[in-house]
Amino acid sequence: MNKKTSRLQKKAASKSHLNNTSTRAQRKRLLDALIDLGAVNTLYARDRLNILMPAARIKELKNAGHDIFTDRITITDRDGRPHSRVARYVLIKLASNGGSA
Questions:
Q1: What pLDDT, in 10s, does the model give residues 66-87?
Q2: The model scores a pTM over 0.85
Q3: Which residue of 12, 39, 40, 50 could cross-link 18, Cys pair, CB 3.0 to 4.6 Å?
């Protein structure tokens, strides 16, 4: 496990951090995960980041100037069920103005 992953997991472990469901807090968690991990898929965002509608948060981050690429992948959930066409978001470039989350 690399330092970036462990740092994100420590952040995600904070209950108060995850319990904040304001759109601003969700955007911040998602942007932090994209920075730390490089890519986040819908299931990860829902399960680990407590973001019910990650596509909406991604749209808001794009509107703030962040360059985020979306592709579709097939993944297996933690119960062993396959899911096709799951969105995977990849951070290409942060907004030049810092684009607050």
A1: 999 999 999 999 999 999 999 9
A2: no
A3: 50
